[in-house]
Amino acid sequence: MSGIASPGDAPPVRFDRATLRIGERTILSDASLTVPAGAFVGVLGPNGAGKSSLMRAILGIVPVPDGRISVFGRPVGRGNHDIGYMPQFQARPAPRLDGRSFIAAALHGERWGLPCDWRPGRHRRRDAAEIDRVLDLVGATHLARRPIDHLSGGERQRLLLAQALLGRPRLLLLDEPLASLDPHRARDVVALVDRIRRRLGIAVLFSTHDLNPLLGVMDMVLYVGRGAARLGPVDEVVTGPVLSALYGTPVEVIRAGGRIFVVADGADAQASDFSIFEPGR
Ligand SMILES: Nc1ncnc2c1ncn2[C@@H]1O[C@H](COP(=O)(O)OP(=O)(O)OP(=O)(O)O)[C@@H](O)[C@H]1O
């Protein structure tokens, strides 16, 4: 044995002293972190902290002016077949599409991670099998013939997840998949993603504003803010001292009833965005 790691051993995501900037704004500065194989990582931080930008950098859309980000040992680049991506904002699908056509549209449209020789009509049987596979994975085979505008938010979310799974990615980037879902549906989505990642052995980065639905499922949490990032187990990262240092404002972490409440005080405008404490949730 040479002892040299093969690309197959490389972690799903690795940041080596990476800097991310959007315009004048520094999203991350000199950040180093490694997402282990098969990990479910909750990505948290206040509005505008850079959660979406971080995912877009992993996709190769946001440039990395300093340092390096690699995905399974290779520098990031557009059209990486290893990544499945569910963006935060979705174009509204044509109401007459049924579930199957909705997924087929992603198969034939521009998406992340598909082999570039996939063209409409060229591989019909393979396409049909791939659509069946992802519908089955997300438990949405029964939605295949239903019009998309008759589906609930949670059902549509399943189809979006199915789209992200096209092409057998080894890394899933899910940008706020719980937005606009009630707590019950949110937990269903988290449980579904967890089942899929265990079944396929893939890593997941899952951004959210509330870490509670991810408790008991996520292996690690990645907090971003003020140009820095902290990745680690929940008990190590979600603490008053760590988050206060990360955000430069007093942050209190309260554990009660199996839930975690992160409360920022002080006058910092960003701190008020940094409220995972939402009464009634
Ligand atoms: N295309 C863009 N052009 C200019 N600024 C941008 C662009 N995309 C994002 N930004 C800015 O970069 C910062 C990070 O945005 P990003 O969407 O990554 O944050 P976020 O943590 O995902 O926020 P939220 O929780 O509100 O979705 C914000 O200040 C945002 O206004």
Order of helices and strands: EEEHEEEHHHEHEEEHHEEH
Radius of gyration from CA coordinates: 19 Å
Q: Which strand order do you get reading across the main beta sheet?
A: 6-7-8-3-9-10
Head-to-tail CA distance between termini: 53 Å
Proportion of residues in helical segments: 25-40%
Give me the CATH superfamily: P-loop containing nucleotide triphosphate hydrolases
Family: Belongs to the ABC transporter superfamily.
Pfam family, one: ABC_tran
Keywords: ATP-binding, Ion transport, Nucleotide-binding, Transport, Zinc, Zinc transport
Protein name: ATP-binding cassette domain-containing protein
What's the quick description here?
With 281 residues, this protein is α/β, with parallel strands linked by helices. Helix content is 28%, strand content 25%. It is globular, with a radius of gyration of 19 Å.
Question: What does the model show?
Answer:
There is one protein chain. Helices cover 28% and strands 25% of the residues. The protein has 281 residues and is of the alpha/beta class. The chain has a single domain, classed as 3-Layer(aba) Sandwich (Rossmann fold). A hairpin with a 2-residue loop joins strand 1 (13-22) and strand 2 (25-35). Helix 2 (99-108) crosses helix 3 (124-137), helix 3 crosses helix 4 (153-164) and helix 4 runs parallel beside helix 5. The longest helix is centred in the C-terminal third of the chain and has 18 residues, at 183-200. The chain is globular. The termini are far apart. Bound molecules: adenosine-5'-triphosphate (ATP). The site of adenosine-5'-triphosphate (ATP) has 13 residues, from strand 2 and helix 1. Residues 22-23, 25, 27, 45, 47-53, 88 line the site of adenosine-5'-triphosphate. GO terms for molecular function: ATP binding; ATP hydrolysis activity. Belongs to the ABC transporter superfamily. This is ATP-binding cassette domain-containing protein. Keywords: ATP-binding, Ion transport, Nucleotide-binding, Transport, Zinc, Zinc transport.
